[in-house]
Amino acid sequence: MKSITPRSRCPISFSLDILGDKWILLILRDMIFAGKSSYNEFLQSAEKIATNILADRLNILESQKLVEKVVASDKRSKFTYILTEKSITLIPVILELSIWGLSNFPPETDPDLIIALESDREETIKKYKELARKRAEQQRKSSQAVL
């Protein structure tokens, strides 16, 4: 497992040590909003992450306990990545980054998400947290059925 050595005791610095890499946030985005969970699904994202970078970032996410790596339910030689509660707590942060991006750059975001965030931010955050927890639980159950 890849470890991260904090540069200082500052909580912002520590958060950036883990989340400051754009690929980490994009992988989490894909898991939270697109329901992606496999290596090949991540490779299909519009940003076209390189395979070596994807493997490295998934290792970081796993070592920091932001994702759990389990055997895929459809094939024993394949793995699925599941959001952990630790990563689910990042949903409000990721949504706030989305809101900031929408306010300052041309949007290419789901218009329904924009409307939901504008009308009831707290309920939208709650919805995505519940959806992420439900998806993670389903993935864990299907992975355990394979074993």
Structure report:
Helices cover 63% and strands 7% of the residues. The chain has one domain (11-146): Arc Repressor Mutant, subunit A (Orthogonal Bundle). A two-stranded antiparallel sheet has the order 1-2. With 147 residues, it is mostly helical. Helix 7 (111-119) packs across helix 8. Strand 1 and strand 2 form a beta hairpin. The protein is globular and about 45 Å long. The chain contains 8 helices and 2 strands, in the order H-H-H-H-E-E-H-H-H-H. Keywords: Coiled coil, DNA-binding, Transcription, Transcription regulation.
Supply database-style keywords.
single chain; 147 residues; mainly alpha; Arc Repressor Mutant, subunit A; two-stranded antiparallel ribbon; 7% strand; Helix-turn-helix transcriptional regulator; transcription; WH-like_DNA-bd_sf; DNA-binding; WH_DNA-bd_sf
The strands making up the biggest β-sheet line up spatially as 1-2
- Please provide the count of β strands: 2
- Report the end-to-end length measured between terminal Cα atoms: 23 Å
CATH class: Mainly Alpha
Give the low-pLDDT segments. Answer: none
Indicate the structural class.
Answer: mainly alpha
Number of domains: 1
Q: What percentage of the residues does DSSP assign to strands (E)?
A: 5-15%
Described by the principal axes of the CA atoms, the overall outline is globular
Report the helical percentage.
55-70%
